[in-house]
Amino acid sequence: MMLRRGDAFVADTARVVGRVTLGTGASVWYGSVLRGDDGPIVVGDAVNIQDLSVVHPNVGVELVIGDLVSVGHAAVVHCRRVGARTLVGIGSRLLEGAVIGEGSIVGAGAVVTEGTVVPPRSVVLGIPGRVVRKTTDEEIAAHEALARKYAREAAAQAADAAARRPGPNA
């Protein structure tokens, strides 16, 4: 059962199944899959799950993605938590039990291994993922701006899709 708070957008080729809650302004883009059949998924406000990403918790484990998070194209989010105002890079992998602290960057292609706890405001790069430095205020502001841009784009996409739907007398 999917629960939408507010104006969440789910692209027509995305799949959202099971116990999934989408926050206001959240968006799930083309080809992405959110599987809440094994455990609940809570997606915060203005979160964007970009094209071809997979979000899937372990059995009985709640997976929480905080507000203003961008999950890059083809990422796999199989962790416990992604903190607010975080950027999950293109093609990155967040494995079982990992926790990503608020205001972090997980670089493109990085693999955060099982059970890793990434402190807030960390930049994680490589395979396996390692913290290489702290994020700057400017980087966090840029993540917030990106998340808000996606929320605006999602609203436009939803309005366009609604306009193309036939009315009740069609």
Give an account of the 3D structure.
- The protein has a single domain (2-161), classed as Hexapeptide repeat proteins (UDP N-Acetylglucosamine Acyltransferase, domain 1), CATH 2.160.10.
- 16% of the residues lie in helices and 35% in strands.
- The chain is built from one helix and 19 strands.
- Strands 1, 3, 5, 7, 8, 10, 11, 13, 14, 16 and 17 form an eleven-stranded parallel β-sheet that branches. An eight-stranded mixed β-sheet has the order 2-4-6-9-12-15-18-19.
- The longest helix is centred in the last third of the chain and has 28 residues, at 137-164.
Task: Give the arrangement of secondary structure elements.
Layout: E1 2-4, E2 9-10, E3 15-22, E4 27-28, E5 33-43, E6 48-49, E7 54-55, E8 63-65, E9 70-71, E10 76-77, E11 81-82, E12 87-88, E13 93-94, E14 99-100, E15 105-106, E16 111-112, E17 117-118, E18 122-125, E19 130-134, H1 137-164
Parallel strand pairs: 1-3, 2-4, 3-5, 4-6, 5-7, 5-8, 6-9, 7-10, 8-11, 9-12, 10-13, 11-14, 12-15, 13-16, 14-17, 15-18
Antiparallel strand pairs: 18-19
Give a short synopsis of this structure.
The protein is an alpha/beta fold.
What features would you highlight for this structure?
19 strands; 170 residues; 11-stranded parallel β-sheet; 8-stranded mixed β-sheet; single chain
Coarse shape: globular
N-to-C SSE string, H for helix and E for strand = EEEEEEEEEEEEEEEEEEEH
Oligomer: single chain
| Mean pLDDT metric | 93
What name goes with the CATH superfamily? Hexapeptide repeat proteins
CATH topology, by name, is UDP N-Acetylglucosamine Acyltransferase, domain 1
Regarding CATH, which class?
Answer: Mainly Beta
How many domains make up the coordinates?
1
Helix/strand-derived class?
alpha/beta
* Alpha-carbon distance between the two ends: 29 Å
